[in-house]
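Whiteboard transcription, Tuesday session. T.W. wrote the C-alpha cells on the left side:
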C-alpha cells in the first residue's frame, strides 16, 4: 500500500460536459459538469482498436472529485481501477460521471424536482464519450456500475433506457424501499417534531445556515427530502413527501409512486430489457446498515422468478467502506461487454 498517489499505468483525462438538458434545472445547480475518463494501458497504440465502456456513477451526496479521497491504509477508487486494468482484466474505458445535486443526488432519474439527469447521463454524457474516445458505440458494449444510489441508478437506467446500456453491476443499490427508506422517515418525523415544529422548510433553512451534516439528524432529514424530490415531485417542481411530517403516517398514493420506482417492483415490467443484458452483477454486505442486502436479495429473487441469468453475492461487510468491491463489478462487465 502506497500512502501517496503513484503514476498511473493507464491514464485519466478530465473533461467538462456542457449540458443542455440541465440548463435551468429546478435547483439551480451547475449545467457544466466535470467528467473523468480512464483509458487503460495500450489505448491509442492501435488506432483501429475500439473498447467497451463502463460508466461508474456515485452514491448519494457523491460528486466526481470525491473518487480521489483516500481512506486510511487503502487505495483510492482511481487507483483500484488502474490496478485492475493494468493487470490481466480485459480492457475497458471507464467513465466517472457527476450527477450531484444540491440536495445530495439525483437518483439518475428525470424529475421536475431535480432535473433531467437520466437524459444527461444517457444522451449527453454517452454521446460526449463516444465522440471523443475509441469506444465500441453500441449498447451491447456499454455497461453501468455504482454503489448505493449509484447502484440504484445502475439497476434502473438499463430498464428505462435499454437502448443505451448492455450490462450492469450494482453494489448495495437502493432497493426494497420499505426497508431502506421507511426507517429514515420515522427518524425524520421525530426530528421535525422535536427541533423544527414539524416544518421541513425550517429544517432546510437551518441546514443552509451552518456546516452540512453538523447535526445528528441532518442525514435522514436531507435524504428523505432528496428522495422525494426524485420520486414524488409534482410537475411544477413541488416536492411531495410520502408521509405526514406531523405524524409519520404514510400517504398511500405518494408512497405508491415511490414503490413504482423500486427496482424490485420494476423488474417484472421490464423483464425483456433485463433479459437482453449481457451481464447483471449484484452484491451487498451482509450487515448493511440500510438493509440493502435485503434489497439486493429481493432484486435477485425477482430475476430468478423471471428466469433472468445474473450473478449475486453477499459478503461480510456493512454498507460502509466497500469501495474494494468496484473492481469485481468492473471486471465482470469488462469480460461480458467486449467483442
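and on the right, the sequence the group agreed on:
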Amino acid at each position: 500500500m502506497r500512502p501517496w498517489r503513484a503514476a498511473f499505468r493507464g491514464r485519466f483525462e478530465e473533461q467538462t460536459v456542457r449540458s443542455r438538458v440541465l440548463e435551468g434545472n429546478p435547483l439551480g445547480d451547475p449545467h457544466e459538469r466535470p467528467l473523468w475518463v480512464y483509458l487503460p494501458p495500450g489505448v491509442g497504440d492501435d488506432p483501429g482498436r475500439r473498447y467497451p465502456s463502463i460508466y461508474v456513477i456515485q452514491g448519494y451526496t457523491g460528486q466526481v472529485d470525491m473518487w480521489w479521497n483516500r481512506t486510511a491504509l487503502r487505495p483510492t477508487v482511481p487507483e483500484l481501477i488502474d490496478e485492475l486494468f493494468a493487470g490481466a482484466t480485459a480492457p475497458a474505458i471507464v467513465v466517472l460521471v457527476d450527477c450531484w445535486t444540491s440536495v445530495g443526488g439525483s437518483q439518475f432519474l428525470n424529475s421536475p424536482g431535480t432535473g433531467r439527469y437520466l437524459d444527461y447521463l444517457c444522451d449527453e454524457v454517452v454521446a460526449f464519450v463516444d465522440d471523443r474516445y475509441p469506444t465500441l458505440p453500441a449498447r451491447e458494449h456499454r455497461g453501468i456500475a455504482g454503489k448505493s444510489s449509484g447502484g440504484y441508478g445502475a439497476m434502473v437506467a438499463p430498464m428505462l433506457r435499454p437502448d443505451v446500456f448492455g450490462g450492469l453491476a450494482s453494489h448495495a443499490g437502493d432497493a426494497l424501499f420499505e426497508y431502506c427508506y421507511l426507517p429514515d422517515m420515522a427518524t425524520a418525523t421525530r426530528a421535525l417534531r422535536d427541533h423544527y415544529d414539524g416544518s421541513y422548510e425550517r429544517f432546510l433553512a437551518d441546514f443552509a445556515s451552518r456546516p452540512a451534516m453538523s447535526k445528528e439528524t441532518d442525514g435522514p432529514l436531507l435524504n428523505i427530502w432528496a428522495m422525494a424530490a426524485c420520486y414524488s415531485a409534482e410537475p411544477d417542481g413541488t416536492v411531495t413527501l410520502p408521509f405526514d411530517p406531523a405524524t409519520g403516517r404514510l400517504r398511500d398514493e405518494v408512497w405508491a409512486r415511490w414503490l413504482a420506482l423500486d427496482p424490485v417492483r420494476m423488474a417484472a415490467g421490464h423483464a425483456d430489457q433485463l433479459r437482453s443484458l449481457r451481464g447483471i452483477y449484484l452484491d451487498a454486505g451482509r450487515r448493511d446498515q440500510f438493509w440493502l442486502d435485503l434489497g439486493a436479495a429481493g432484486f435477485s429473487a425477482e430475476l430468478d422468478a423471471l428466469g433472468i441469468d445474473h450473478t449475486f453475492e453477499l459478503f461480510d461487510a456493512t454498507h460502509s467502506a466497500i469501495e474494494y468491491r468496484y473492481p469485481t463489478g468492473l471486471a465482470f462487465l469488462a469480460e461480458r461487454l467486449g467483442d
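Someone added at the bottom: Residues 178-259 form one domain.
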